[in-house]
């Protein structure tokens, strides 16, 4: 089973909360209370998100945390990578692979392709997409993913978009 860790889930929840409320900066304490996650956990997640450049922090009485850029430009892949490290479904596609089978593995190329597809799918989902409520989901514009190779054969590229 593929599953993100709880810290990553909390990171997406925190980032979504900040994306909904961009008018102000929030203390770690205020964020912990707003999303109902323990303060030490929130601090750990905020630190990782700041180190990756997804959040800005400012010290002082009027300081706090805020998104470093618009929610429409922050991908879920970036949030996952900030907390979990590079997205790698198997050991052989990891940047720090120590797989003993790598030199003679027949499926490594396919794992690279699958990992690339998963990364791009997550990269297409933006933080702003996470703000869509259940009632809005039916009327929201769909998230567009890269077409498969078989779909691309019959597609026409026009103005940078793929049609067909």
Overall description:
With 164 residues, the chain is mainly α. It has a single domain, classed as Arc Repressor Mutant, subunit A, CATH 1.10.10.10. It contains seven helices and four strands, in the order αααββααααββ. A two-stranded antiparallel ribbon has the order 1-2. The chain has a two-stranded antiparallel ribbon with strand order 3-4. A hairpin with a 2-residue loop joins β3 (156-158) and β4. α1 (6-20) crosses α3.
Tags for this entry?
43% helix, globular, mainly alpha, two-stranded antiparallel sheet, Arc Repressor Mutant, subunit A, 164 residues
Question: What is the structure about, briefly put?
Answer:
With 164 residues, the chain is mainly alpha-helical. The chain contains seven helices and four strands.
Topology summary:
Blueprint: H1 6-20, H2 28-35, H3 39-51, E1 55-58, E2 64-67, H4 76-84, H5 108-124, H6 134-137, H7 149-153, E3 156-158, E4 161-163
Antiparallel strand pairs: 1-2, 3-4
Helix pairs in contact: 1-3, 1-4, 2-3
